[in-house]
Amino acid sequence: MNIKELSPDSSRQAAFGARLRSSREARGWTQEDLASRMEYSSTHISAVETCRKVPTCRFSRRADLALGTAGTTDSYERQWREIGSNNLLEGFPEYVGYEGRAVEIRLFEIGIVPGLLQTQEYAGALADGDVRRGAITPEQADARVAFLAERQAALLRSKPPMMLVTMDESCIRHRVGGPAVMAAQLARLVEFAALPNTVLQVSPCDIGERRPFNLPVNVLTLPDRSMVAYAESQAQGHLDRESTFVLSLLTAYHHLQAEALSQAASVAMIQAMIQGTKG
Questions:
Q1: What CA–CA distances, in Å, run from 276 to 175, 180, 266?
Q2: Contact status, residue 108 vs residue 166, Cβ threshold 8 Å
Q3: Do 108 and 34 sit in the same domain of this protein?
Q4: How many domains does the chain have?
Q5: 108-149 pLDDT, tens digit each
């Protein structure tokens, strides 16, 4: 049987796959042996080992249980998080850790739908665009989409956070992935607005200079009621817990909400856009 040679130094994903194979072989296990212990198929194990499939959080945790590395500083879950954090802006991986524990999440986005509200197809189209521009590799694109899916899954808990999302109108007018993908994404926004723990507002273009932000902004409230803010540009991300800075962003966010459309008007605008994508 031909065994594909791995290059662990080529990427973090390759290092994960090479390590998994090495650990398995050191125990004298076949892919079928490891698959039965992890409750995956041997085909899935092979695909991760050879970088044809990106590992997920669940896969990494199963590997830790099977290989005895759960809770260690060298766990597969930790290595998976490093894969997901690859090519992310400074401060963002740390922000994601806070995001998974937040009791309130306030988001403002320009140009594209916020990641936590993106469908898999919409996120994939964005990642594919970066691949075509040469900004990332196909493997990194897969890792980015998988990482986003894990972020979204972390919010599906028994007591989900309150989410207040204000999007610039450009987010729903900037078409991504073609009519079908965009229509499904807009429908997802309508579904989000109907949830009991959400508020969705569109900041219309005609508010002009009254819009207080020109860059995406995230503000989190943690279980102890402390707050964390994250803002980013095209090239930089900045995480801050300093109260004066965070409170100034929170005040500006309140001004933004006052200028934005109501949720009912926002949903009506999005529904009109859905009809437009079908035309």
A1: 11, 11, 15
A2: yes
A3: no
A4: 2
A5: 999 999 999 999 999 999 999 999 999 888 878 888 888 888
Share of the chain above pLDDT 90, in %: 61
3-state DSSP assignment of residue 110:
coil
pTM: 0.72
**Burial label, 234 (beta-carbon count in 10 A; 0-12, 13-18, 19+):** exposed
**CATH classification of the domain holding 259:** 3.30.870.10
Determine the pLDDT at residue 245: 87
Q: How far is CA 225 from the centre of its chain?
A: 24
Same domain, 96 and 200: yes
C-alpha angle 110-227-224 in degrees, rounded to nearest 5: 140
Q: What tokens were used for 171?
A: 């987010």
Residues linked to residue 200 through DSSP beta bridges, in sequence order = 165
Residue 6 lies in a domain: no
pLDDT digits (tens, 9 = 90+) for 7-28: 666 667 788 999 999 999 999 9
Burial 253-266 (b: 16+ CB within 10 A, else e): beebbeebbebeeb
d(CA 23, CA 25): 6
Strands (E), the chain: 104-109, 162-168, 198-203, 217-221, 227-232, 237-240
What's the CATH code of the domain at 21?
Answer: 1.10.260.40
Query: What is the token pair recorded at 277?
Result: 């994508």
- CB burial string 99-117: b at 16+ within 10 A, e below: beebeebbbbbbebbbbbb
Helical packing angle, 12-26 and 57-67, nearest 10°: 30
Side chain identity at 125, as an amino acid letter?
A
Q: Which two tokens stand for residue 178?
A: 């073609």
Q: Predicted confidence band at 192 (pLDDT cuts at 50, 70, 90)?
A: very high
Does residue 170 share a domain with residue 71?
A: no
